[in-house]
Design brief:
The chain is about 30% helix and about 35% strand. With about 160 residues, it is an alpha+beta fold. It has one domain (about 5-125): Thiol Ester Dehydrase, Chain A. It has a five-stranded antiparallel sheet with strand order 1-3-4-5-2. The protein is globular, with a radius of gyration of 17 Å. The termini are far apart. Bound molecules: coenzyme A.
């Protein structure tokens, strides 16, 4: 496996619980950020910061005690940024069928020791699926532009 992807595997712990008895959304967001960070640092060989997390969709709840996999893979690189697709899957450890719980795109920027954005190695898609994911990331970037322009007015108010 290349350093363009990685998977975290662990058990959902009682300390991850929400008020409804399943895994807390905040815990899932932390796992997403951690897996994305490890993938970005592995690809760029430098410290990285999260610049954007988009469209986190919680599809199904994760049960406490479930085996969780957080799968991260680079799907697009720019000059200093890395777009990483994250998919969270879980299953009862007694069973073999995985459920897809969450999907999102997270973007990291590589930084030097002075906190300045630095360039990252170019990731080139090779398989059909990778080409499709890269085009998906580019499409999302364009769609996001409208949302960000709309939000910018509020942020700068
Ligand atoms: C990350 C940071 C250094 C970028 O600084 P900036 O002046 O906005 O830099 P730029 O506008 O040159 O953008 C840098 C890269 O981020 C990308 N980027 C910026 N905003 C983005 C967004 N909303 N979505 C996706 N990528 C974005 C740019 O496209 C650029 O990528 P490229 O070099 O591959 O083209 C700065 O925004 C920052 O420090 N943010 C806080 C990070 C942080 O604290 N994260 C949470 C804790 S880790």
């Amino acid at each position: 496996m290349s350093n363009a992807s990685l998977t975290f595997s662990f058990l959902a712990e009682p300390s991850d619980v929400n008020f409804g008895g399943n895994v807390h959304g905040g815990a899932v967001m932390k796992w997403i950020d951690q897996a994305g960070y490890a993938c970005a640092v592995g690809w760029s060989s430098s410290y990285c910061v999260t610049v954007y997390v988009g469209g986190i969709r919680f599809l199904q709840p994760i049960k406490i005690g479930d085996l969780v996999e957080v799968r991260a893979k680079i799907i697009l690189t720019g000059t200093t940024s890395m777009h990483i697709a994250i998919d969270v899957y879980s299953r009862n450890p007694k069973q073999s069928e995985w459920k897809r719980n969450t999907h999102c795109i997270i973007v990291f920027v590589a930084m030097d020791g002075e906190g300045k954005a630095i360039s990252v190695p170019t990731w080139t898609p090779t398989t059909e699926e990778e080409v499709e994911m890269e085009s998906y990331a580019r499409k999302l970037m364009l769609l996001r532009k409208n949302i960000e322009d709309e939000m910018e007015a509020k942020i700068r108010k």
